[in-house]
Task: structure prediction
Amino acid sequence: MTIKITDATKNPVNISSGATATPFSDISISNPVTVNQYGLFGGGGTLKIHLSSSSALTNLGSLSDPRDVPISFDPSTYTYSVTTLGGPQTPSYLYPDSILDRLTYTAPSVLGGTAADVKADISFTGNTADPTTGQPITQTVVDPNPITLHVAAAAIPDTVIGTGADNFTFAVSEDAFQGDAQVIFAVDGKQLGGVQTVTASHAAGASQNFVVNGDFGYGAHKLSATFLNDAWDGGDRNLFVDGIKFNGDTIPASSGALWSNGTATFEKPVTGNELKLTMAEDAWSGDAHATIYLDGHQIGSEFITAANSQGATQDLIFRGDYGSGPHQIGVQFNNDAWGGSDAADRNLFLKGATFDGNPIAGAQVNMWVGGVYTIHT
Result:
């Protein structure tokens, strides 16, 4: 920035600066006083920068000097003060222009809100002697045009709930009043995670993501968000569901407002298709291996490790735009083996199957020998 201060003869004296974080814009101060690189009348002085904002910001940012020149801070007025020195013997880094050249403004992180403006009022006060009369004086130069510093909004980090191959992302916001809104999420009637706190301001246009993970599949699902702590008494706390996504795709008609305690419910339609095969094996000298076909096209190749004798099962899940069907599903048992006894016999078992969440009739097949076994949706 350049501070342009005019002296008694209206000749501008320039003090250059360029803040390294968020730079101040140009300032133009007009005041009948002499200022040079040493300060007011060459006697140094105090640079003050007062920060304020008309927004609800409580943290207005901070000022620092990379040369570690002491900067005092008055939290009651949010004013930073730097004492500068004057005179030819002063180290150059303590000149007012050098300090201004280095000052760095670090903006606060505004989570979940909109961008805000911080106003910087700058003044320079010098204690010196009047060059004409020799009398001690204190002279203050005030910038009549405060600087506006832009504070960008930062997104609230996603809250991740649970684990699994799929996810529902609930984007929510609130009207806060005497505390933040609280919510619980459920999929198909099952609560996932605990009570969650929402801090994103709906009025500010912000939104906060809660990513609910699980092995949900591509079938239809019922989703819900339950508002727990409505409040109203001179203010109003509310909860808003701004939208829901499934594996990154927006679910239609997935927004709504909760003005009082209660539950907002939404429906996820079938998107794409899902085939699930539940398998098990008798292992001997290695695990059973299967190749999976849908309508004659290979869609998978897997080793099965779940022991049938122990009641264990292994789900193979395949997803794609297969269409509603009907479909033919083929399971090819590739590596049957037998060592001459029941204990030395590798077998493969299809314990069940679903297509888009619907059970497939006849999907229980014992594969005692190798080959292709078919079922139909």
